[in-house]
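Structure ticket #2291
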Amino acid sequence: MNIKRMLLIGTILVSSLAILPVQEVIAKEGQTAQTEHMKKGKKHPMMRQFKKMAKHLALTDEQKTQVKAIFEQTKLKAKEQKETMKGFKEQVKSLMSAPTFDEKAFIELHSQYQTSFTEMALQKAKSKHAIMQVLTAEQREKFMKFNRKHRR
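Resolution: structure written out below.
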């Protein structure tokens, strides 16, 4: 009985490990489909989420324009930081392709980019705060529930 249970668990583990590469391929195909969808002139997923949020919170036209302006400012600042992150990711990629992992080099690289990470987190917090200032107290409460629900 105990051996059968261990065999079952072992079989499940091995099969789940065998499925991982397939899941990665499926995920990449999904990303490709998403970018193709966006290239064809379809709305960006964030725009759809904004529309859902606006409808759920019953935003006024004035609130919608204010929130859109906040999103635009955030998008501009994110574009500025994108190049920095691209450099970081390339350097991490080169560290990952090395035959042995150099922990010291990674820690040094991470600390080198720490100010950029802090700036991005700060920008995200500022944007969220600005959006919260546009909303009424009731809308803020709904927004927090909306975020918790969609975060899962």
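Closing remark: Residues 2-39 form the longest helix (38 residues).
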